[in-house]
Amino acid sequence: MRAMVFDGHAPLLEERDVPDPVARAGELLIDVHACGVCRTDLHVVDGELAQPKLPLVAGHEIVGVVPQAGAGETGFAAGDCVGVPWLGHTCGRCRFCLSGREISAMHRASPAIRSMARLCRTRRRKSALLPAAAAFVLVTPRRCYARD
What we know:
The chain is mostly beta strands. The protein is built from three helices and eleven strands, in the order βββαββββαββββα. The longest helix is centred in the N-terminal third of the chain and has 7 residues. The radius of gyration is 15 Å and the shape is globular.
């Protein structure tokens, strides 16, 4: 599939062919219709993060359609419209998580596994069903928490 890849050699994303992702247990495969650009991606491109995992496919904060759910998944089905925010996983144990402030969690991760591509896989737990008639660009999550 085609994806926007940053390899660290230039401050540009390059369109490349990469292997299609496969949804694992607890994940969804998403046909990406709209994808946000997060400040974290810009930090990587600007060289502001130490030792990022390169090359990487940029992007999270997505809206799309599920073509396939991972093994045993019953909450989503092929054809469902979904939205995925930037915050996908937190530790669940720190004072922030325990007080309902996951956005400040000590350990957190993006739910989408790099989504500036035709397909991506994401953690099912943080995906939200959207109306089938949703205007994808209008409902794409647009905000990303930044500590700048």
